[in-house]
Amino acid sequence: MDIMRNPGINLNLMSPTELQEGIARLSRGAYFKEATLEMTLSILTESAAQMSGIERVSIWALCEGQSELRSLDLYELSNRRHLSGESIYARDYPNYFSALRHEDCIVADDAALHPATREFASGYLGLHGITAMLDTPIHIRGNLEGVLCLEQVGTHLSWTAMHRLFAHAVANLVTLALVEYEADEARHQARSANERLRALLDPLSDSSVDRIRQFS
Questions:
Q1: Nearest-CA neighbor of 73 among 99, 35, 111?
Q2: Which of these, 23, 12, 24, 85, lies nearest to 48 by C-alpha position?
Q3: Does 3 map to a domain?
Q4: Are 175 and 59 in contact, with CB atoms under 8 Å apart?
Q5: Using CA atoms, how far apart are residues 216 and 210, in angstroms rounded to an integer?
Q6: Which tens digit of pLDDT belongs to each residue from 101-140?
Q7: What are phi and psi of 155, to 5 degrees?
Q8: Which of 177, 149, 168 lies closest to 19 in space, CA to CA?
Q9: What three-state secondary structure class fits 175?
Q10: Is residue 53 domain-resident?
């Protein structure tokens, strides 16, 4: 599969047209139809990290009655590795969860001081060396379903309008992937239901034919 391999690109040096073309190449990828959801999400996180030069790019799903965010895929640029399975809980980070529900985007140039992310200062930020966070909520049919996270490690970073535009574009691709997955699951369930129905009706049909023949 064709994954962009341009590590370290500075989004500030990209024109809106170049950014649009990069996102368009991602959206045209055959993996949206052919790959599993897990593979699609891993391609998106890796491609986003390579395009932007941001160290950590991750996709999280909101679950357990919106009380937990669970990492579906996280890509670390310098280590070139994918991780998943980490969870954070609303009881530990109430301001962050509230911000996800009410803000279009969380733009934390200094994650340790921003009102929505400073709850992470004593644990998550220090554990991963994160200095800045740009988190874009993911909505499906108007419902909050998760978040796309861009996390700067080490040196501090001021997020620009181009960073925010890029994050929203990638979040839209994540939404598309999730919607495609839901549609595939619905089609699969419908086919399974039809097959079960035919399995039940076919013997009945044979029996009915036999009864008609006997009557005749």
A1: 35
A2: 23
A3: no
A4: no
A5: 10
A6: 999 999 999 999 999 999 999 899 999 999 999 999 999 9
A7: -65, 145
A8: 168
A9: helix
A10: yes
* Distance between first and last Cα of the chain: 63
What is residue 116's predicted lDDT score, i.e. its pLDDT? 97
Place of tokens 């839901």: 182
Asked if residue 2 is part of any domain, the answer here is: no
Dihedral of alpha carbons 9, 15, 18, 20, sign: positive
CATH at 125: 3.30.450.40
Report if residue 181 sits inside a domain. Answer: yes
Supply the DSSP symbol for 28: T
- The domain tally of the chain equals 1
- Unique residue bearing structure tokens 């491609």: 47
Higher local confidence (pLDDT), 56 or 195: 56
Which tokens go with 40?
């699609």
The parent domain of residue 88 ranges over 11-215
Is pLDDT at 208 greater than 90 in this prediction? no
Length of the chain: 216
Count Cβ atoms below 10 Å from residue 125 Cβ, excluding itself.
21
Asked if residue 54 lies in contact with residue 62, where contact means CB atoms within 8 angstroms, the answer is no
* More reliable by pLDDT, 82 or 213: 82
Q: What does the alpha-carbon distance between residue 82 and residue 50 come to, in Å, rounded to a whole number?
A: 13
Amino acid at 9: I
Task: State pTM to two decimals.
Answer: 0.79
